[in-house]
């Protein structure tokens, strides 16, 4: 197991959160609106146990094989998602129907994130493949699914991680490949946005205002404001794991940390976010782990827009890999060029 001071920050933070959970379970369990066992399941089974498992040594061969396996799984998920939601492409009757029905099967943000991850995996495998043109098919499928999901977050994540990647690898980027891909993506989005109602919903959500009391922006602003006010009311030990009286998280993991754990927990969360982001940027030039870094950066962005401490599994699991990889250098790089 690879342990260093950065990983210690992670587990100290989780220890504080477990203490908060114990207090809420014993003292305030009747006030928590989401079943308390769900929180425990998210934290232990989704975050802590996988983090421990991912602190083992991982070599380059394992990472490369994992990318191929993850690509196949993501392709399967996106194909099944398309089949399950094809009725929305043909006849979507407003945002409420699409997002409510989608949430009953697969949360729209998760659905859209699976599409974003497929784009990342496809582009990276495509860059080493002799059959590049075939990877435009899964990329197109992913873009369609992002439109159906109607979630803005993954669109913004895709733009930002493209900027991060381009900045760190600008000397490797070949415009003859990038330009056709960008034109294809724009063309797909434009075609579906003019033809199908499900895509029009995505455009409407980008123009939504937080002053509109019927919109999700307004609700999230109120959650964020309520969470910060709860921290100010109890700045040293925190107040609750939920925003009162809504019974939800603030949709911002940093604010949630201050709200739940007080000033020390909030500062500790800020340190983790800063250190993991800094180390992730360093790893963007390392071929064998770049796919995990890009997925990690997309989930880092989520922590400020819709993330929660207990259910942001991918952030915590990938943070364990990113922090350990940089400081222990347990992955031996192979500089030879490979073709997928």
Automatic annotation (TrEMBL):
<feature type="transmembrane region" description="Helical">
    <location>
        <begin position="39"/>
        <end position="55"/>
    </location>
</feature>
<keyword id="KW-0472">Membrane</keyword>
<feature type="transmembrane region" description="Helical">
    <location>
        <begin position="133"/>
        <end position="149"/>
    </location>
</feature>
<feature type="transmembrane region" description="Helical">
    <location>
        <begin position="177"/>
        <end position="193"/>
    </location>
</feature>
<feature type="transmembrane region" description="Helical">
    <location>
        <begin position="7"/>
        <end position="23"/>
    </location>
</feature>
<dbReference type="GO" id="GO:0016020">
    <property type="term" value="C:membrane"/>
</dbReference>
<protein>
    <recommendedName>
        <fullName>O-antigen ligase-related domain-containing protein</fullName>
    </recommendedName>
</protein>
<feature type="transmembrane region" description="Helical">
    <location>
        <begin position="67"/>
        <end position="84"/>
    </location>
</feature>
<feature type="transmembrane region" description="Helical">
    <location>
        <begin position="258"/>
        <end position="277"/>
    </location>
</feature>
<dbReference type="Pfam" id="PF04932">
    <property type="entry name" value="Wzy_C"/>
</dbReference>
<dbReference type="InterPro" id="IPR051533">
    <property type="entry name" value="WaaL-like"/>
</dbReference>
<feature type="transmembrane region" description="Helical">
    <location>
        <begin position="289"/>
        <end position="309"/>
    </location>
</feature>
<keyword id="KW-1133">Transmembrane helix</keyword>
<feature type="transmembrane region" description="Helical">
    <location>
        <begin position="104"/>
        <end position="126"/>
    </location>
</feature>
<feature type="transmembrane region" description="Helical">
    <location>
        <begin position="155"/>
        <end position="170"/>
    </location>
</feature>
<dbReference type="InterPro" id="IPR007016">
    <property type="entry name" value="O-antigen_ligase-rel_domated"/>
</dbReference>
<feature type="domain" description="O-antigen ligase-related">
    <location>
        <begin position="141"/>
        <end position="268"/>
    </location>
</feature>
<keyword id="KW-0812">Transmembrane</keyword>
């Amino acid at each position: 197991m690879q342990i260093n001071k950065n990983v210690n920050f992670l587990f100290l933070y989780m220890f504080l959160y477990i203490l908060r959970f114990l207090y809420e379970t014993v003292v305030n369990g009747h006030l928590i609106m989401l079943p308390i066992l769900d929180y425990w399941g998210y934290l232990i089974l989704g975050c802590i146990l996988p983090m421990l498992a991912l602190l083992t040594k991982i070599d380059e061969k394992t990472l490369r094989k994992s990318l191929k396996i993850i690509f196949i799984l993501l392709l399967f998920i996106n194909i099944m998602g398309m089949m399950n939601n094809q009725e929305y492409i043909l006849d979507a009757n407003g945002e409420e129907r699409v997002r409510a029905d989608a949430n009953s099967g697969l949360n729209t943000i998760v659905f859209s994130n699976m599409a974003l991850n497929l784009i990342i995996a496809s582009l990276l495998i495509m860059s080493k493949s002799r059959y590049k043109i075939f990877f435009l098919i899964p990329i197109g499928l992913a873009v369609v699914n992002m439109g159906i999901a109607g979630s803005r977050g993954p669109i913004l994540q895709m733009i930002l991680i493209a900027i991060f990647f381009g900045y760190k690898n600008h000397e490797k980027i070949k415009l003859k490949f990038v330009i056709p891909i960008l034109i294809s993506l724009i063309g797909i989005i434009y075609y579906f946005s003019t033809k199908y109602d499900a895509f029009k919903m995505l455009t409407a959500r980008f123009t939504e205002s937080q002053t509109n009391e019927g919109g999700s922006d307004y609700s999230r602003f109120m959650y964020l404001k309520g969470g910060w006010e709860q921290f100010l009311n109890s700045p040293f030990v925190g107040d609750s794991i939920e925003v009162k009286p809504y019974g939800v998280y603030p949709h911002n993991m940093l604010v949630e940390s201050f709200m739940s754990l007080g000033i020390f927990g909030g500062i500790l969360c800020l340190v983790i976010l800063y250190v993991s982001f800094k180390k992730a940027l360093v790893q963007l030039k390392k071929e064998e782990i770049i796919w995990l870094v890009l997925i990690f950066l997309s989930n880092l962005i989520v922590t400020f827009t819709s993330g929660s401490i207990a259910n942001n599994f991918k952030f915590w699991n990938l943070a364990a890999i990113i922090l350990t990889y940089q400081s222990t250098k347990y992955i031996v790089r192979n500089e030879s060029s490979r073709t997928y």
